Amino acid sequence: MLVLLHLFALFLLVTLGFYVFVANPRNRAHQTFAAFIAFLALWTIKDLFFWNFHDENISAGWWAAASFIIALLMQCALVVFAWVFPEDSPIPQKRAAVLFAPSLILIPTAVFGLLWHQVGFVNNQFIIDLAPLAYAFAGYVYFLFGYGATVLFGKYQRYRGTQKSQQIGAILWAVGITGVLKTLANIVLPFFGAYQFLPFSAIFVLPGVLIYAYAISNFKLFSLQTALDQFRLFPIAYKIALSIASVAIFSFIIFQIPIVWWAFQDGMTFEAWRRYLVFSVVSALVPNLLLVLLIVRAFSRPLQKITVAAVQVTNGGYGTEVDLRNSNDEIGLLAESFNEMSRKMAHDIEQLRQLNEQLIRTEKLAAMGTLSAGVAHEVNNPLASISSLIQMMQARSNLDADTTEKLKLISTQINRITRVTKDMMDFAHVRPAAKSAADINQVIETSLRLASFDKSFQKLLLKKTFAENLPPIYADHDQLQQVFLNLLLNARDAMPSGGELSVKTYGSNREIKIEIADSGGGIQANHLKHIFDPFFTTKPTGKGTGLGLAVCYGIITAHGGKIEAAPNDENGTTFFVVLPVNEKADEVEEIAETINV
Known about the structure:
Elements: H1 2-23, H2 28-53, H3 61-84, H4 93-99, H5 103-111, E1 116-122, E2 125-130, H6 132-158, H7 163-191, H8 201-204, H9 206-216, H10 224-232, H11 236-263, H12 270-314, H13 330-394, H14 401-428, E3 436-438, H15 440-451, H16 455-458, E4 461-466, E5 473-475, H17 477-494, E6 500-507, E7 511-518, H18 525-528, H19 548-558, E8 562-567, E9 573-580, H20 583-596
Parallel strand pairs: 4-6
Antiparallel strand pairs: 1-2, 3-5, 6-7, 7-9, 8-9
């Protein structure tokens, strides 16, 4: 019965210490608690071997020495815990050196047996005759115990009314209960010759340890939510411990018990020991290989995949993700975080690339605008003089047919140059936007109505998909109308023999999107990056100046929006216009409604 109690206490202590330590392994309080539990586990192992398997004819000095030393180490751990909990404060090294200095003298006295005159069994009765130095040793141990309790009580007073105070109060109760039970079992009763409770001293400490662990874990040790959280996040340390324990138990049940029974069935002879050692070594290979396989599968392969993905990202493969099965441990969280980081990095780099292209295009527009204004001004002045002379010559009545035809041709070319210079001036001097609340569907309807007067546009099959209840935007109605009319006429030019034109609007409370798609011949991929550049055009000579889309780009970006082009899935081109919904639009609309009322 006693051996089962000792095994139960040992299992509980190891499990509890491991659980609390893994919950926060970098916290000094958790580290100190784990050290305290380790000393208690050593105390339990000492009692397990001594009270259940010790030969009464052999001296019990090792047990007494271990008892004194472990008791001292437990109080040292208690003092350190009192220093670091609950602030996770660093250990005061100078104070610790002074306070623990007597241990350097007292521990050797226990090792060399100077603390007792006699210890062991006499006529089946356990007795211990302590030397005076043992009482000094015990006094120092209780001094450390009292000092640690005093430090904890001072912190209890300091944090009164908080959860920290509740935790410290529970720990003081645990320290008090443990101290009273251990004192009764190990000192008071043996002093009066009652040793029957001495083998159970390792059991008496369990209630205090449970309270201790419950308090240090923020009173969540036995809660259902904590259990669910631990199941949700199953740390690697737990997996390693579970794997090793499972393999050990499996190996013991499947291999060791049958091998022991088979090897020693005829007695503990030399041949029996030889058979046991040989087959134990052989049988140990199977669980060890299984353990290696579990570790490789659970840790090595996932880490290798993460490493390969990290190298790919380093080499420029932004957006690379780790393909791992769902795992609720640190490796799973690492892989998930890595994938999120890689995706965000790829997204940010793409945004930077687009922003860089937009800045370059804006600089080009500004430079070309300045150049266009200068060129248009210098060309218009002599062009006006030439146009006046041509008109004067055409007014003469004595011109022959050939001269009249040539003057008409010159006038036509002058008109063409005039249109180009006018486009250049419009491009260079975009007037400030007169912004007001605007309904995007109404703006597009107006642009469609203007475009419908063109005979070529009337050949197109128009499909409109306008979202209802779109919020108003704060924009210049005329400038947006110019943009959409330009896009509609470009779509017309892309489908000279007719085709399908789709106009779609949709959006949210933050932005409105417009799509204008045609079924024409499309734009080559190498041209898409340049279609908004000034003077870039894919139309035949004389059909366009290459400034229309550049003007559209300037208007849309001035409204804080974006304009892009992309090929359709089958053929043709789609222009995407995104305009932000400004809060001022709602304010303007409310003011307009108030004025109307």
